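Cross-check.
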Amino acid sequence: MVSREVDGIPSGPAKERFVRRLFAAIAPRYDLMNVLMSAGCIHLWHRAFRRWTDLRPGDAAVDVCTGTGELALVMAEQVGPCGRVVGVDFTPEMLELAREKVRRRGLDDRVVLEEGDALALPYRDGTFDAAAMGFALRNVVDIERALAEMARVVRPGGRVLVLELSKPPSPLVRYPYFFYFYRVVPLLGRLVDRGTARTEAMRPYTYLPASLVKFPEQEAVADMFRRVGLDQVRYHGLTGGIVTLHLGVKPG
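Predicted model, tokenized:
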């Protein structure tokens, strides 16, 4: 496969290596920057996600590209002590932070964190009641393949949910948001990382806004949900559409 760069961002296998190194570098500041960049709205988005999982005590769920484990922890509260949540990520540095958070919350009995690839999940078909991903779909090499893997590992009637940044439909929101996201966020990142987390291509908080440029619009993502075989596909814009919760249900 030949890798190409779009706006300085590698593609193909080069993107996978780039993203792995990038998130390893920003792991210690990742949660702090999420709160700063979102002005605290990330907690509202997690609450919205919780309302749509349809998880119940005793269920099983997987958080793909779990990072520091935020969505895994949300789902762990829902499935209770008789349930199970697996968080999978390919960045060991992020997983180590997630394990510490799980230990602090006393949820070791129901959360398992494993290293793995979103494009080849190491689980059997129909293993989980829900598969989730938070703010990582822009970072995978093959979006549709990642969605297909999530659909594969949920049972019939199970849900696939993706929280992701999006492009607000209203110009009144879109243009101020784009100014903040593309101009202010990289400055915040420089202040926080103090130049210590630069990759060979660009600073991490320059990459994160740039990764939204080529990301599909909400309806295009919904079409991908349908193409991988999901039903009842819908999406909900949050905070004026700067974030979207995508949802699909596996037929059966």
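The chain is about 45% helix and 20% strand. The longest strand covers residues 154-165. Passed to J.P. for a second look.
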